[in-house]
Amino acid sequence: MILTLIGFLSGIISGMGIGGGTILIPSLVIFNSMRQQYAQGVNLIVFLPVAIIALITHYKKGNIDFSFAKLIILGGIAGAIIGSILAMKIEPSKLKKFFGVFLLIVGTYELIKKKE
Questions:
Q1: DSSP class of residue 65?
Q2: Helix (H, G, I), strand (E, B), or coil: what is residue 98?
Q3: pLDDT value of position 56
Q4: Residue 8 domain boundaries
Q5: CB–CB of 35/21 below 8 Å?
Q6: Which residues contact 115 (CB under 8 A, 6 or more apart)?
Q7: Which pLDDT tens digit goes with each residue over 43-89?
Q8: pLDDT at position 82
C-alpha cells in the first residue's frame, strides 16, 4: 500500500514537471530501507511510463517547445551517462548526502524565488 501511495504522489509531481524522483527516491530509501543506488534505478524505470503520459498530456496542450527540447536532450544524454557512472562509484551514504543537499538547494530556491 505504501509503495502505491509513493508512486501516486511521485506521479503527480512528475506530471507537474517537477520531477517525481524528489518524492520517490527519498521515500524508497526512508520507508523501504533501499540503498540510494537501487532507489535511483527504480526511479529511472518508473520515470519512463510516467514521463510518456506526462509528455502526451503536455503535447496535446501545446506546452512543448521542441527547439529547446532538442538541445536539452543532447545535454541530458551526456549528463545521464556521467551521472550514472558517478552514482555507481560514490558510497551510498555520501550519495544520500549529496542528494539531500541538492533537494535543500532546490527547495530553498523555490521558497525564495520571486513570483512570475
A1: -
A2: helix
A3: 92
A4: 2-112
A5: no
A6: none
A7: 888 888 888 888 899 899 998 888 888 888 899 899 989 988 988 88
A8: 93
Number of domains in the chain: 1
Retrieve residue 63's grid coordinates.
506546452
- Name the average pLDDT for the chain: 86
DSSP conformation class of 16: T
- Phi/psi of residue 112, each to 5°? -105, -10
Q: Give the Cα-Cα-Cα angle 10, 46, 89 (nearest 5 degrees).
A: 105
Cβ 46 vs Cβ 60: under 8 Å: no
pLDDT mean over 14-33: 82
| Nearest partner of 12 among 64, 53, 69, judged by Cα | 53
Name residues whose C-beta falls within 8 Å of residue 103's C-beta, 6 or more positions apart in sequence. Answer: 22, 26
**20 SS3 class:** coil
- Under the banding of pLDDT at 50, 70 and 90, the label for residue 17 is low
Query: What's at 20, amino acid-wise?
Result: G
The three cell numbers locating residue 51 = 514521463
Place of cell 529547446: 68
